[in-house]
Amino acid sequence: MPIKQVNPYADLVAVCQGDRRYGRELVCDDNVLVGVLAGELKVVQADRTHYCGTGDTLLLPRLQPATLLKYPTQDGTAYQAVVLKLPLALLRAYYAENAPAPTPARSVAPGPLLLPQSPLLRSLFASLLPYLGLEQRLPDKLLAVKMAETLEIVRSLDPCTDAVLADFTEPGKLNLIEFMEANYMFNLPLAKFSYLTGRSLTTFKRDFKKAFALSPQRWLTQKRLALAHYQLTEKSRRPAELYLEVGFENLAHFSYAFKKQYGYSPSTLAGRGA
């Protein structure tokens, strides 16, 4: 079963592990560094999918919806990863003294960055594991030193990481229709959708009803089920493979909603595509 180990005295560090496929949707308020120690990690975003294997490290930008799917290896070795949050306050302090590398102008925000495998990263993650056994709060000065070490390693391996790490902008008011059409498959609270589109929850609901003539929850359910129907019939996928990727928390809820919408269970469509 999936296990997440976190020590309240060093809550920026977590170790995730599981001996079967599992996943979750998230939008991180902070940038996150994920070091895959064993198994495989699949990160699904609106327009791209990233794959990481044992030894890979991925930098996940903040405020980008994603579904993280975690798999054990084919020989049964459990998935295991070290996760390190990079809080904005510590990043601001670091970049106040270290100028970011110049980066080309982008029309869209950079996505997750796969870093080159390196002994430096392996050493970094190994040094974080003992934090799970702390019996008192990690001193602020030591935390700042560890964060500076992390950033120096990451930046030395890929200067493009500054485009992610030194970006302190907050979401502006976005085109609601475009954003929701691109991100409806992520099972996020409405408050998070409203924040990411630069609106209060009240304004989000009002603008949504005006744009789609449906409540957000009803529209989201219909869109997710339509995507699932397409994946089952055209891509020959199985319900157990896709329910997380189309915004449902568990297979039973997905099957119930699908049958209520279409009059038959998703399992009757599995494998019927090309």
Describe the protein's architecture and organization.
There is one protein chain. It contains ten helices and ten strands. With 274 residues, the chain is of the alpha+beta class. It has two domains: 163 residues, Sandwich (Jelly Rolls), CATH 2.60.120; 93 residues, Arc Repressor Mutant, subunit A (Orthogonal Bundle). Strands 1-2-9-4-7-10 form a six-stranded antiparallel sheet. Strands 3-8-5-6 form a four-stranded antiparallel sheet, with no helix packed on it. It starts with a strand and ends in a 12-residue tail after the last helix.
Task: List the defining traits of the structure above.
alpha+beta; Arc Repressor Mutant, subunit A; 10 helices; 274 residues; 10 strands; four-stranded antiparallel sheet; six-stranded antiparallel sheet
End-to-end distance? 34 Å
Largest sheet: 6 strands, antiparallel
Report the mean per-residue pLDDT as an integer: 90
- Tally of extended strands? 10
Q: In terms of topology, how is this protein built?
A:
Elements: E1 3-6, E2 13-18, E3 22-26, E4 31-38, E5 40-44, E6 49-52, E7 57-60, E8 66-71, E9 79-86, H1 88-97, E10 113-115, H2 119-128, H3 140-157, H4 162-165, H5 176-183, H6 190-196, H7 201-212, H8 216-234, H9 239-242, H10 251-262
Antiparallel strand pairs: 1-2, 2-9, 3-8, 4-7, 4-9, 5-6, 5-8, 7-10
Helix pairs in contact: 6-7, 8-10
